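Teaching note: in complex prediction, the entire set of molecules is handled at once rather than each chain in isolation. The prompt given to students was simply: 'Predict the structure of this complex.' The entities are:
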Amino acid sequence: MAKELTSRAADYSQWYNDLILKGQLADYTAVRGCMVIKPYGYALWENMRDVLDKMFKDTGHVNAYFPLFVPKSLFEAEEKNAEGFAKECAIVTHYRLKNDPSKPGKLMVDPEAKLEEELIVRPTSEAIIWNTYKGWIQSYRDLPLLINQWANVVRWEMRTRLFLRTAEFLWQEGHTAHATKEEAIIETKKMLEVYADFAENWMAMPVIKGVKTASERFAGADDTYCIEALMQDGKALQAGTSHFLGQNFAKAFDVKFSDKENKLEYVWATSWGVSTRLIGGLVMAHSDDDGLILPPKIAPLQVVIVPIFKSDEELGMITNKVNEIMPELKELGIRVKFDNSDAARPGWKFAQYELQGVPIRLAIGVRDLGNNVIEVARRDTKTKTSVTLDGISFYVKALLEEIQLHMFNRAKQYRDEHITPANNWEEFVDILDNKTGFVSAHWDGTAETEEKIKELTKATIRCIPLNNEQENGKCILTGNPSKERVLFARAY
RNA sequence: CGGGAGGUAGUUCAGCCCGGUAGAAUACUUGGUUUGGGACCAAGGGGUCGCAGGUUCGAAUCCUGUCCUCCCGACCA
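The expected output is the structure of the full assembly:
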């Protein structure tokens, strides 16, 4: 079974690629580093997007859309932000092609059509948005501004990987403006909670909420909060970030407001985002050697019904019964498909839907009709049971919930078992090399030490967990005093 | 961007070293038998050999350039 898939043990990277490609989530294109998200993968993204969008709106945000291009002069206004992204920008320099006189039928860039000012294809939108906000904000009555946009961005990464790091990707970016520092910090933390809620309760992917060290911070932020997830190969994945931007962008773009005392103040800012990278995390958090395992709440298809028949007459009998069940399932809001195609035999369908991670498979043949039962197969545990057809829709509904919970608990158990304290350097390195996962260790708080540890072990500080327990100790590398442990890991 | 590997039928690949009518498996189409874990038989269709130059009587094969992918590294909100 699953004979064409590479196993995780044999080659984890290849297994990951196999699942994306053969599970039909995405495919390569002729464009370097850019993928096409196929209908099945896009359906997954749509489900994720819809849930997040509702969460944003429930927390008072509205959607808008800003330009893809950022004039270079605006892009460079916030210096740290510009510096952070400068090395991975796509730049528009011309606006016209013309026939190439030396190569008939071919086109060339028209040198006459050079732009006065280059346009940067947005790697993130703070610059264009804050330049726009300048015109929208005059008074404290204009605040807060709570805006989100669903968009694509481009980052010219040297090395790309499907979903995890592509040159162009889809995401949402929230950009809010506030009258006070306190309010902006509350917003930053609120959105981190939204992300954690989404990751854990919808994607069934446990995350650690924390704050980044100064060197891992978003370029232009005063603080970067993050959710960190753990993949099955023991590597960490930054799954979402929420930034407290202070007044950095307000100052760079001169965005001031009059407060109640008619004093001019700079606006306080936040930005926060999650991307299609979440899909990569979803794949690596849950799936197995037989294919994808998708959490029911966001799976494009939650239930597939596969008929087992030897003749049209038998298929007719089965179809009659399925026609009773389908409306009941749909009535309960379940995304269900009846695969009565005769192009593939049952065994092939079983394997295909397992590869694509459909949470529940129902198989029904005439034998089952006689016994008034149906075979229920769970993707997460690969167990099969024969269940009475009476009230089957409620059984399926409950089972979907159970699968969702089981997937989360299983991932959480793995994650929890892979947060390991290290009290000396030998332990630290041993855990990273052999056990993998997060290592909880003391750090002296300096960027130099952080960098040195990264050089020596390739592990980075993923975050300083929120509500971190305070505990006096000694830095794992330097032995200097430390007040708390931080989480290290090798990461994607 | 450095090192390594690769790109030939929808897919996985052989052929390349040593230039001479483009192959296999699988998938697809049709017919038949089948159908409770990736069925079988028969017939059939499908290719600018990544792209662009060059060498040659002749290039999938040799040479040069270029694009895309994978792995390792550097980089990485």
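Point out the following to students. Chain A has three domains: 43-284, 303-405, 419-489. The longest helix of chain A spans residues 392-417.
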